[in-house]
């Protein structure tokens, strides 16, 4: 029997550590419990929020509806020659899955080591880091369709993946709850260390022929040195997306800011939002209980007692100053509730 709790504090359910209350709260441990929940018309028509690890959310107010916390667990795999299909419950922690794969020697997600959050949110966000995105290894997912009460499958092309985007955030927003995800990985030690500081760090450690375990360890070390640990300083990682602009627009901005940090991508030029925020003198600034992280201006932090509204107001100020200096409007990556 499902337990629906009332007026539950969400402080420990979001990595910003922001205090906010859910009017109703339910934990789902098995996918069949979703059918049980939505068989009740009260919950089918309720305002809902699906919650994984709460590492990409900012609560700016209490949630006057039903929060559905997904805890569906379990990881298993099936090897077929050089390929392996790893299937994970949506409620597994992403990093548990990475460790599982790295320990078995399955290559493909080691560059995504130490990203907080759940497996279920990974296709929603198309998480990415160090030159790898979820879409590179995503095989399919099984999701609960709220309108019909049935389970449906989405393959890679059906998910409409883009930079921190998928159909689950766009056309199909709020319609599906991801229950489990299948990943296609390799039993061969194919590694990708071309991005960021990975190869330099490996060399520093005297590792010339790295294994996926080495890559995972080095990526984890780099992340720990750059990003605040949410268990001590509340944050949700990168608060803004890196904007992608046309070549024409880039040339105009580049003429005024010749040192602007940028990368060529498929559909244009990606600008480093963190660099632009830093140029506007925001890096490491403390504003009341909130601010930006001293080592990475793209990360907004809660120094202890910040409210969601304060963090949001700071993000608005940052957007305005970047707009004034670079004529670029930053877009928030974090989900604002
Ligand atoms: C320190 C730090 C570093 C980070 N670094 C990175 C990084 O390098 N790369 C990156 O991409 N992200 C990064 N993030 C952001 C975050 O970890 C990811 O976006 C992660 O995928 C969010 O997972 P979650 O379970 O916490 O999702 P939540 O915050 O709980 O939810 C995020 C969104 O997904 C929806 N959702 C969650 N679970 C499900 C489900 N089962 N079915 C349907 N919808 C669901 C929610 O409704 C919400 O819209 C970082 C965050 C932190 C705190």
Number of helical segments?
A: 9
Q: How would a textbook summarize the main sheet?
A: 5 strands, antiparallel
Question: What ligand species are in this complex?
Answer: flavin-adenine dinucleotide
Beta-sheet strand percentage?
25-35%
The SSE string, one letter per element, is EEHHEEEEEHHEEEEEHHEEHEEHEEEHE
The main sheet orders its strands as 6-7-12-10-11
Rounded radius of gyration (Å): 20 Å
Helical fraction equals 10-25%
The number of E-state strands comes to 20
Mean pLDDT: 95
What labels describe this entry?
single chain; 337 residues; alpha+beta; five-stranded antiparallel sheet; four-stranded mixed sheet; 9 helices; 25% helix; globular; binds flavin-adenine dinucleotide
